[in-house]
Amino acid sequence: MALRALMQKYGPAAAISYSSVTLTxxxxxxxxxxxxxxPSPFILEIVSHAAMAGLDLKPWMTDIGALDAAGAPTDKxxxxxxxxxxxxxxxxxxxxxLPLAAALTPAVxxxxxxxxxxxxxR
Length: 122
Known about the structure:
It is built from seven helices and no strands. By secondary structure, the protein is mostly helical. It has one domain.
């Protein structure tokens, strides 16, 4: 289910679910990078799998300076800002975050209604 469809069906509960999932991913990735994990092999693996699925991420990754023209990680990716690298890796997780948020949204909506945040419980 697309985020737009979730927003139309569940309203603020979908936004809260997706934002919570994204914040969790972002925090976990940031902590991992802060403790010294090199994301280059992981990112190259994601780019490779995306290419096998028919989605070419290399031009986009080259435009933002994460990969050079040959497809190798740049120093910007390896030694750049932890925050920017975290944003990049979090963005690559959208195919995981969206279904997870879609699965959580009905429960979040019920809970918000139960506590009166979104109106009366049905």
